[in-house]
Recover the amino acids of this structure.
């Protein structure tokens, strides 16, 4: 009888949305999971605290290492120590709008950080042992050249983030072709969850509207609400990241739902889950979202702070980007055909889950505020 040895995975960006779901997923599969966390002045491990294990006990299967994608020697040392079977490179400065403000840092971490990892694998002679997943992105398509976008659609990046990720995409392909490394790009379209960072559009909306419903904020200030995105659930997408590394041959895959909606539609759904019907009026930067009706949900008013006629959504040009990606729609046919992957959670179900999560948090904050605790929950960051 052969005994299957336990696999070891290393995740950069383990403290992020995807990293936390992927770590849970791999632990369930029996992996030993190592994650790289950044040093910060405050704790930044909230998304993985529930899977933390005491490092003093024998057989702990979840281990965190301090590190940074900008530090070659640190990455090399961690790889040498961990000797991973699989590396998932999810770490990145991942905010598109922020990349216009910090373009050089974004290039260093998102582009050169990927090269540093690949070089470390090679330097340590791990090419035949270690499989590599690169978190590529639908932002590569930018100014779209074809609808829907698939693996063969030409790239046209529209932000420093996307340009940096384009380097990372091609250096991953190059190391596969040049050195025979098992390396894949997952070209993932937007995916969200209650763990999504609070300044990405879906979470900003669900959290902002829940706060407004509970009287903690008064208005949601948005950028381009005509923007169209193909949104899926992060849990479905991390499963696919793992599947890509289990094939005989490394390949790149588009991961998407194949359905797109506008940001405005996502705002309307989120309001509906709070029992609020919104009416949009006006054009361009003068467009506003007005409360048209308020209903109970399961016999309860979830937005007690609102009344019909309140303006709760406004446009703020500060949130427009110097160059926008107006529309993204993925074609996941290859992933479906070759890997049998289909997303299990619809965008509507995901929106409901996110609103319920943020409403619970807003209620807790409203209670604390009522009892005199000084808390700030602004969505304007
Ligand atoms: P998050 O922003 O939630 O997480 C990013 C992670 O990277 C965090 O753990 C962050 O650490 C870490 N990180 C940031 N800078 C560095 C650095 N210099 N060194 C090491 N780690 C760093 O992103 P997501 O989980 O949403 O996305 C995961 C990856 O997938 C990213 O690379 C993103 O660009 C890409 N992607 C995401 C999509 C999406 O829709 N979510 C779609 C397509 C691609 P900290 O917690 O300390 O900030
Ligand atoms: P994106 O996600 O740029 O697609 O990148 P984000 O949620 O930030 O924006 C989606 C769209 O919404 C528009 N928008 C706003 N966006 C934000 N953040 N805040 C606003 O107030 C606002 N108003 C309108 C944006 O202009 C955009 O069109 C995400 C990140 O996770 C990347 O790391 C990843 O690679 C891509 O998804 C796929």
């Amino acid at each position: 009888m052969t005994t299957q040895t336990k696999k070891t995975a290393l995740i950069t960006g383990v403290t992020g949305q995807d990293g936390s779901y992927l770590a849970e997923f791999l632990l369930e599969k029996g992996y030993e999971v190592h994650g790289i966390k950044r040093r910060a002045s405050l704790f930044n491990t909230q998304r993985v605290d529930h899977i933390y294990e005491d490092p003093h006990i024998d057989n702990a299967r979840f281990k965190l290492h301090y590190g940074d994608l900008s530090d070659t020697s640190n990455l090399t040392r961690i790889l040498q120590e961990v000797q991973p079977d699989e590396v998932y490179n999810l770490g990145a400065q991942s905010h598109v709008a922020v990349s216009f403000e910090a373009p050089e840092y974004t290039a260093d971490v998102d582009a050169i950080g990927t090269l540093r990892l690949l070089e470390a694998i090679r330097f340590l002679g791990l090419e035949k042992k270690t499989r590599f997943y690169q978190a590529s992105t639908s932002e590569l398509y930018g100014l779209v050249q074809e609808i829907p976008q698939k693996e063969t659609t030409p790239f046209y990046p529209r932000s420093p983030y996307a340009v940096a990720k384009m380097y990372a995409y091609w250096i991953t392909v190059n190391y596969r072709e040049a050195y025979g490394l098992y390396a894949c790009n997952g070209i993932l379209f937007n995916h969200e969850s209650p763990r999504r960072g609070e300044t990405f559009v879906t979470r900003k909306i669900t959290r902002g509207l829940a706060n407004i419903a509970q009287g903690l904020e008064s208005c949601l200030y948005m950028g381009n609400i005509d923007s169209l995105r193909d949104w899926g659930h992060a849990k479905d997408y991390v499963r696919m990241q793992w599947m890509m590394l289990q094939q005989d041959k490394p390949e790149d895959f588009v991961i998407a739902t194949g359905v797109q909606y506008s940001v405005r539609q996502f705002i309307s759904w989120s309001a509906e889950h709070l029992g609020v019907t919104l009416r949009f009026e006006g054009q361009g930067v003068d467009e506003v979202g007005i409360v048209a009706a308020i209903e109970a949900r399961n016999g309860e008013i979830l937005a007690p702070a609102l009344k019909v006629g309140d303006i709760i959504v406004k446009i703020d040009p500060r949130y427009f980007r110097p160059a926008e990606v107006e529309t993204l729609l993925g074609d996941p046919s290859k992933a479906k055909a070759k890997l049998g992957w289909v997303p299990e959670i619809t965008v509507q179900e995901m929106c409901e889950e996110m609103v319920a999560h943020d409403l619970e948090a807003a209620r807790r904050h409203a209670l604390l505020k009522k009892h005199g605790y000084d808390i700030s929950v602004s969505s304007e960051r």
